[in-house]
Amino acid sequence: MAKAAVSHPLFARIYPRINAFAEAHGSVEHRQEMLAGIHGRVIEIGPGLGSNFVHYPAEVEQVVAIEPEARLRAVAEQAAAKAAVPVEVRAGRAEELPADDDSFDVAVFSLVLCTITDVPAALAEARRVLKPGGELRFYEHVRSERPRFFRMQRLLNPLWGLLGGGCHLTRDTERAIQEAGFTAKEIRRFDFLINGRASPASPSIIGTARPST
Ligand SMILES: C[S@@+](CC[C@H](N)C(=O)[O-])C[C@H]1O[C@@H](n2cnc3c(N)ncnc32)[C@H](O)[C@@H]1O
C-alpha cells in the first residue's frame, strides 16, 4: 500500500524554476499536443503547479485535479482560478482516487508516472474512473531505448530521485500502460532536447491509450 501523504518540500520549492525552464524550451508545446482535441469531464492526476490548466480546450466541461503534495496543491489552486475551463483541485493520491467509477471521459498524466509510487495501482484507478470509451492522455519522460543512455539513467537514478521528489529516470511507462490493460492508440517517442542537448530525462513519450476490451 502506498503512503497516504506525499511531502516533498525541496522539490516543491525548486519545481517552479525547473518547469519554467522546460516550458521556455518546448514543454508548453508538449502539453498542448497531449491535450489536443479532448472534451468532456477530465481527471488530471498529480497536476503539480497546474501548468496544464491553461491548455485545456474550451470543449472540456470540467477538470478534477488530484494533487497529494500540499504546497504544490496550493499553487495548483491559484492556477485553477485563472483557467478558462472549470478546474477543481482535490487532495488525494493516484493509487486511491477520490472519484466515482465510470465518471470521466479522459484521465491525464503528465510527468507524473515517473514519480507515483505504485504505477500499476494508479493505472488501475484511472481505468476504474474512466467511462466506457474513455481515454488516457500522457506526456512522460521514460527510460531510454539506447543501452548506453539507459545505463547512465540507471546510474543517476538514486540522486535524481532525491532531488526530484521521488522521480525515476528508468521507467518503461509505455509498457506499464499496456500491462495495465490499455491499448495505445497513438504514441510519439522523442528526445526532448534543450538547446540541442540531451538531459537524463530527455527520452519522452506523448500519447493516447484506451482501455482494452
Ligand atoms: C514532476 S511533477 C509533475 C507535475 C505536473 N503533472 C506537470 O506536468 O508539471 C510530479 C507530480 O506528481 C505528484 N505525485 C507524486 N506522487 C503522487 C501520487 N502518489 N499520486 C498523485 N500524484 C503524485 C507530485 O506531487 C507532483 O505534483
TrEMBL record:
GO terms for biological process: methylation. Keywords: Methyltransferase, Plasmid, Transferase. SUPFAM superfamilies: S-adenosyl-L-methionine-dependent methyltransferases (SSF53335). It comes from the Bacteria. It holds the Pfam family Methyltransf_11. The keyword Methyltransferase applies. Gene3D superfamilies: Vaccinia Virus protein VP39 (3.40.50.150). Residues 44-137 form the Methyltransferase type domain. Signal peptide: none annotated. One of its GO terms (molecular function) is S-adenosylmethionine-dependent methyltransferase activity. Coiled coil: none annotated. PANTHER family: METHYLTRANSFERASE LIKE 7A, METHYLTRANSFERASE LIKE 7B. This is Methyltransferase domain-containing protein. It comes from Streptomyces liliifuscus.
